[in-house]
UniProtKB/TrEMBL annotation:
It comes from Oncorhynchus tshawytscha (Chinook salmon). Residues 205-230, 256-330 are annotated as: Disordered. It holds the Pfam family LRR_LRWD1. One of its GO terms (biological process) is establishment of protein localization to chromatin. Keywords: Centromere, Chromatin regulator, Chromosome, Cytoplasm, Cytoskeleton, DNA replication, Kinetochore, Leucine-rich repeat, Nucleus, Repeat, Telomere, WD repeat. PROSITE patterns: LRR, WD_REPEATS_1, WD_REPEATS_2, WD_REPEATS_REGION. GO terms for cellular component: centrosome; chromosome, telomeric region; kinetochore; nuclear origin of replication recognition complex. Residues 346-731 form the Leucine-rich repeat and WD repeat-containing protein 1 WD domain. Belongs to the LRWD1 family. GO terms for molecular function: chromatin binding. This is Leucine-rich repeat and WD repeat-containing protein 1. Residues 7-198 form the Leucine-rich repeat and WD repeat-containing protein 1 LRR domain. WD repeats lie at residues 471-505.
Amino acid sequence: MGKITEKLLLERCTPKNTKLEQVKTLNLSKLGLKSSDLPVPLLSRLRCLEQLDLSGNRLQEMPSGLVLPSLRSLDLTNNEMEDVTTLDTLTTLEDLRMEDNLYITVNDNYKLIILLPMLRFYNGKDISNTANHVRYANSENLRKRVLALWETSFSLPDHRTAEKLAIVERDFVSAVRHKVKYGPSSLTDYTKWRVEMIAKEHLRSLTEPNEEHRDTEEPADTKENCNFPFPAKRKRSASAVKCDVTLNPQKIARSSRLQSIPHKAERPISTTPRTHKAAQIPATPIRGQSKLLVTPRNGLREKQHQSKEDMPLAKRTRKSARQQRSTEVHEMPGKVICTKSQHSSQEPVSLQPLHVLQCHSKQDSPDDFSTQLWACSFQPPLDYNGDVNGATRIVATCGGESVCLIDCETGLVMKKYKVPGEEFFSLAWSTVLMSRKGNVGMRPCSILAAGGKRGLVKLLHPRANMAYGEFRASRKALSILCFSPRQGNLLFTGSYDKNILLWDIGGVDSDYNFKVTQLLVLETTSTPLHFCLPPATPDTHLLAACEKGLHSYNIQLNKDPKKRSEEMEITFPVYDKDHDYHTIDGLGFLTNDVVASKSHMQGSIYLWSWNDTRAQRPNKKKKKKEVCAVILVELQWSSTDIPYLSLNTCPSKGYVVCGDERGRLWTYHVTDLKANFRSGKAIPATEILAWPLPVRNGQGPVEGPPINSVAMDPELRYLVALSDKNMAVVWIRTESS
């Protein structure tokens, strides 16, 4: 769509006119317009415009500074509106339509009533009674609570300076957002937004008593100060679930004075099959902070080694979790146990613990140390207009009966999805296409798939708070999920029935209807634990790390049969030792060619060449399919008999990270591949980060539990480690000393 021009505006106005200043009705529907396509200087000439139709476009917000002083009716149906506060300049609006805007919530509806003081009709309904209640009765009740908090806890400084007043405003606004509670929990976001507005208005009345103030704050200020970053307008309350960590003295500790606040009402995801119907699930941040829920125990249960026959049962009996709880955690900074090795040609990153969370606790219990956390993955940045800064801060975690989305910067749980009785073992992000009403094109959306002991794959659209469907992938528990990075609709599932299946989950329409088709069956002799698709050839090969070895499969869809056995089994030197080390419980690509993997009880991590190994694959006529991996280097790791401690890689920074049985993180900075590979010497870790020792006030530190899973965002700004004892630790990259 080209730029909006004066000629176009005159062509689409009714009745026809020759001057923009005289246009009263304008139809700009179904033009594929984005917010950036609306020229404010040109549109601001429409001084007499009374009716504007912008339906069927791709608008996410109204352009800043747009003033249409005569506008009475606006149609924004079937757009992508997210930020309703950008409508604040259209104060003369009486009739507004916003149906089929996926991300508009009930909180946004209430905000519109405040921002648009003359609004009487909304989506075709007369809202006069509701609007009067919100603007007067509701606002007055909130104002009384805000003023009461000011009188009891705050006052203006004796010597007023801009700096001191700014500090008072910051503290006062933070307090009212946390402590003023009124109305249903479903309106928490609106309430916090409204009391912030009232608090600032009250401060202005005290510092500028000779000026008259409106009941609402200046729109730009309102928008600027709603400062809890969260994609798609699902801004979560500031007190959402987290276990704050107080770090070393130079770090700023968060306040521990905030009182605990009741939970927001949750509606669990239905466990009945719902393949083609969307169920809207509310975001469920928990409000309030309390002292740390972590109690140190000398006898904390550790994960014991099971035989291969017992492992499936062990996973099926993992404990479930119900709700997250906010916690105040004091923590010692991570210690460097192993000095930096000399194999890195570039400076390694420095990581410090930032947050410790117990967001999968049973019944919100601070004493829950039995829920095991199994998988975590950072959200890709595709659903947020390429906003890498926003998207890669969000990490999904699963364990027990819940899946949580955590903002790594704030340490707050943005959303939580629960399925009572389920135990989630794996999750995976992808991007699929969503069709839009009116045939106005497709749009990408990030989805999350999660699966566990019930054998069902749950499909979630977190940005819209939708658990839009599920399908049965196995009659036994699911162990691993993995999407194709090249075709986001292709999903691999591994299960305890010793099968690997490839599914096409397709896209979704505007009503969240979708269709699932099974494409391939890959046979294996044991339970799959991890999948990897070679970065250079994700459409042709799959590596599957299983309890009885590492297998390679040909996954080309244009070839038969649809049920296939392995192309080859990749073996390792450790197999030649006295014990059975065939359980491959860690796997990841470090480059297009270099693979990191480890075997259970191996005590080290191999880096090996995928291309050189595959070049040795046996002739199809030979029955023996074993190929020995071409080892490039061996990395020293912990000597432990605890299985399922998986590793992860960050290719852009050349990092391999793996947790151990004591809560430590072994980090390896691998950059100078040519100079150091095939040297014959085992390389020590670049750095071993100690368990951060979170403590409950006066009750000592919590001992380090096994780390089941780790994840890093693509730029290694954050690292998330999930433990066997219901604790997730967020680490942040700091400037190297």
